[in-house]
Each structure stands twice: as structure tokens, then as C-alpha cells.
Write a structure and sequence with these properties.
The protein is an alpha+beta fold and about 110 residues long. It has a single domain, classed as Glutaredoxin, CATH 3.40.30.10. Helix content is about 35%, strand content about 20%. It has four helices and four strands. Strands 2-1-3-4 form a four-stranded mixed sheet, sandwiched between helices. The termini are far apart. The C terminus is likely disordered. This is SH3 domain-binding glutamic acid-rich-like protein.
Amino acid sequence: MVIKVYIASSTGSVAVKKHQQAVVGFLEANRISFQEIDITMLEEQRLWMYRNIPRDKKPEKGNPLPPQIFNEDRYCGDYEDFFESKENNTVFAFLGLTSQPSVKDSES
């Protein structure tokens, strides 16, 4: 299973940049393998992302904003969903992962 994070490398929105950094930073810090997909560079991927976000998660106007998170082809959620799962300590379930990766503490 591959976690896919759809991002926009060239966005004028500070909020979008911070949200993307928060998701990517969490995944990196927790050694969760993921793939970043830049929707500003790959039109086909951007369209795929838009098509695969559930109707109830799409805004009334405009397009859904990055970051959008998928586990392979299964939609996990957007930044708000991620943040809520992080606050509830349910990120691994949110991502559709069975368990937290084993991480050894390098500090002695």
C-alpha cells in the first residue's frame, strides 16, 4: 500500500503550503512511506485526484485544495480530516494502515 499525498508546489496560498508541510512532515517524522504527487506539474494526476474525491468532500464552488490524501486509490481525506485524526491519535486508521511502523529511539 502506498500513501499518496497530492500537493501543489506552486501555490500562492500560505495556508495550503502550511497544510502540505504539516502532512508531509508528520509522515516523514513517523517514517510512513508515501509518494508526493504534484498536481501543478502533472495534469493527468490532477484530474485523477479531482475525479476520485467523494462528492460529499468536494467544495460547493471550485476545486478541492491540496493536500488530498489517498491510500493507493482509496480516498483517505483532506487536511482537515488528517488534522482531526492526528488530534484523536487515529492517523494510522485514517490512512488505512494496520499498524504504526516500529521505530527505534536513537537517543541513549
